[in-house]
Amino acid sequence: MFTAGVYAQDVLERVEAYLRPDFQVVIDGENVRMDSPVLVYNDTSYLPLKEISQRLGASVYWKSETKQIYINTRVNTEQRQEDPNPTYETIELNNPYSAMVSYLGAEYPVLVTSNIKSGSYGRYYRESDVKRMGVDTKGLAKAKERLTNEVFVHENELAKRWKQTPTQTYAAGYEAYVIADELHPKKIDILRSHIKGMERLTYGDVEYSSKPIIVQKVPDKENAYDLLYLETVRMLNVYVNSSSRYKIARLVISQDIFKSDSYVVNNQNTTDLELEAQKREHPESK
Questions:
Q1: FRET pair for 83, CA 20 to 30 Å: which of 118, 169, 224, 269?
Q2: Per the database record, which ranges form the Copper amine oxidase-like N-terminal domain (predicted)?
Q3: Which residues contact 115 (CB under 8 A, 6 or more apart)?
């Protein structure tokens, strides 16, 4: 399930194995259809590590620099099932930020926020990020973030499940936001350059400033990314008159038509999260 490349001959050994798409896999009494067939070598069956681990509630992380595979198992197989009609606390983004955190030896991108409501303290982690870390969130109290409509879990709740507290890591050339799941150096550079150009724009007497929060690859879309950012609009001829909104910009990378080895970034569309929240809250309004 990982692209490992080719290394020195004294490390590798060529073997003869067989793919068996006719083998069936049954997990917890349920027949499952695997994306990759079973491999048979020396009368032993081998299953795709990443896929079978995820089906068992674990996460798998491949670190190419050290040639290590990290497997984080689910915490408690006996914990109660998720409520089919859960009740969520409602929170709203407040000073959100993204970071790379180290958990059980591997690094993961996370989106973290506090709650804009008074009286709420501590950090909320986005549920999809902690699940990716292998933390099972079933049975924990959760919150629905009003603007993004995503589920978050408070750090006090997560402390009941994670095996160690994640620690924030800082790589060389650290930026104030994370570009998640993109490894291509040229694409990362062109994305950062484009986002840098969005930081301050002026049209007439109006100034637009943008604070990037996190960039994520769009699933199943090649070279497409969603940038979550806070946009502040200020009237230059007025002493105090500014407003801020959280937005998501869809960024698309394409090859430069003038240089085959270069890329360009275009803003495909922008979503105002406050307007989207109002549509969900008042679907009868046009």
A1: 118
A2: 26-71
A3: 91, 92, 94, 124, 143
